[in-house]
Design brief:
Blueprint: E1 5-9, E2 15-20, E3 23-27, E4 31-36, E5 38-40, E6 58-61, E7 72-80, E8 85-90
Antiparallel strand pairs: 1-2, 1-6, 2-5, 3-4, 4-8, 6-7, 7-8
Amino acid sequence: MSDVKVNVYTSAGAHVGYFLNPHVQAFPEGDYELSGEFFDENGDRIQKLDFNPQALPYVADVSAVNGLAHTKIENVYVQRGRQPVRMSGNAGIPQ
C-alpha cells in the first residue's frame, strides 16, 4: 500500500506542506476535517505550524484520497498547529 499525500497550498498557489496518510473526515454540505502528521514543503516534519486566524485560507488537494466526493477543499483553516496537525475546510459543490 502506498502512502497518501494531501498537499496544502496558499490561496495564491504556494506550496505550504503536506499531510502524509491523513485521517480525512467528510461531513454534510462538503465540510471536511484533515488530521495527521504534517510536513513542510521540504519534507521535514514540523513541530508547530504557525498560523494566523485572520490570514487567507489554504487550499488542500485531496485527489489522492479514495472515496471522497471532492478532489479539492477550499477555505481550509488550521485548527491545531502542533502535531498531529488538524485543519478544516469546505469543498462546496461535489465535482
